[in-house]
Amino acid sequence: MSDTNATPVRTDAVVIGGGPAGLFAALTLVRAGRRVALLEAGGDMRESLCSRLVARMDGRSVRDAEKFRLQCPRCTCLTGLGGAAFHFDTNLGYISSLTRSKIESAPDGTVRSYSGLERALGSFDRAQELISEAYRILYELGLPPAEPDEADHEDSFGSMFQHVDTALSQSVTVDDSLVVIARLKAELEENGGRVLLYHRAEDVEPLTGGGFEVRAATPDGPAVFHADDVVVGVGKLGLPWVRELIGRIGVRHRPSSRVDLGVRLETRREDLDHLLNGCHNPKLSFLNEEGHSVRTFCVCGGGRVMQYGFLDAVALDGQHCLNQPTSKSNMGVLTTVDLPEGTDGTEHAAAFAARVAAYGKGLPVVSTVDELAGRPVPEGPLTTSLINYHHGDLRECLPASLVRDVLAMVDRLNALHPGMVPGTSTVAAPVVERLFPDLDLSDDLESSIPGLYFVGDSSSKIIGITYGAATGMAAARSVLRRRAGLATTAGGGH
């Protein structure tokens, strides 16, 4: 611990991270009368948005702000209240019922489907209830209710994929997110919660006799908090801090044995329209030769590919552009890799990203589908939405198995609709997910240190806005039960 002399602030709970998981944890606690300090490393949502978005929302031409951010080598709008996902038009997931959207090879050789949230929370019914509650609260806070697309779903998917999930989902724009996050923040503060912006957590230390000391760096100097419980809800960029923390204070964990590695596949918007008929975010999966799941992920109709700095490399994601759609669409193609015993999944994924970045001289690498397949490449510029990239041969920096998986996905999509993914479509790498160490958590997301919870991305169990919100609520409910039980015990109850 640092030797600051800051006077500790006493509170019931500290929530670290102002993304969906942290916000919903804090809201659940505050609504139950608990005192909460929410620490967010970034600023308020609006002030941390890309200036191009702010210009549009203020009625100015987006062009007025292009000179500031359009040519950013990498996106820096990934911190701030609301979390990275809410800083862009995005997709929230299921609006009617939770589904088991992923597949894996079962020990008996069959293919089984599962939900990551179901596994994180111990039961499908519980996961379903928490997702429903998350939507109820989002609507209560001003999210416009979804209007499901009544178009017919593509009925031929099953002929080419071992699992198809076309459950209805809800899109949300930044404009709507601003309303939701502002109302959530206001409710926290009106009911005794403290939303502390530009407070970057540096240490969490269990105290003798129970409770925790949390230290944070702020613009005004160090801040110290004493709390009964701590909920950690940092996003992907908080990975290095979480790894250091759990190793230092002895949170029980093991190296991740399963990671998601992949690419963003991008083509013309009209080419991909067949895939999006009746479903914003179809999830199509098959098992490869090794029995690993290969699936579509985060389909962005009319969107663009974005990059951000990750560890010592770079990573890609899909950006939805609902207010100002582009002429392109993109999707992730991910392979879930089961790693050999003794392999650290976090290190494996970091090495994967670093290898691509090294080949790209610090930039993501883009090839055409034809190049990836070893076919002749037409002359002319690539049609990618990425602005800063290295045009190279992805076969030289991606594992051969991943190249094979991407091409197999392209073949399946083209078998459904010839020309859906032309050879001139682009493939960009790297994409990395499921990177956190495998924490030993209860079904309430409580770690081996009582009172210390890990939710959202940092739980190592799930990613996504509504999934994150569900884990935040699960952890907060656990805190409330534990504290009620301790109060009863202290009062002599049975």
Automatic annotation (TrEMBL):
Keywords: Flavoprotein, Oxidoreductase. Residues 12-46 form the FAD-dependent oxidoreductase 2 FAD-binding domain. The keyword Oxidoreductase applies. InterPro entries: FAD-dep_OxRdtase_2_FAD-bd, FAD/NAD-bd_sf. It holds the Pfam family FAD_binding_2. This is FAD-dependent oxidoreductase 2 FAD-binding domain-containing protein. It comes from Kutzneria viridogrisea.
